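ok here's Electron transfer flavoprotein subunit beta, seq below lol
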Amino acid sequence: MTLPNIMKAKKKPLETVKPADLGVDVSPRLKTLKVVEPPKRSAGVKVADVAALVDKLKLEAKVI
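and the structure came out like this:
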């Protein structure tokens, strides 16, 4: 892209087409039942060392 071509493109007319002209249905297909805020995040916990971290991950979070 060069600057002269960009300037030429600005002068060209833009053709606008309605969805009905193309045979496209744009009516909403989904219905919003309700909108709720996500739950607040709880505060983090500081651990003293790696062993305490591993214990918490095993016993409380059950990810290990």
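fwiw The chain has a mean pLDDT of 91. kinda neat tbh
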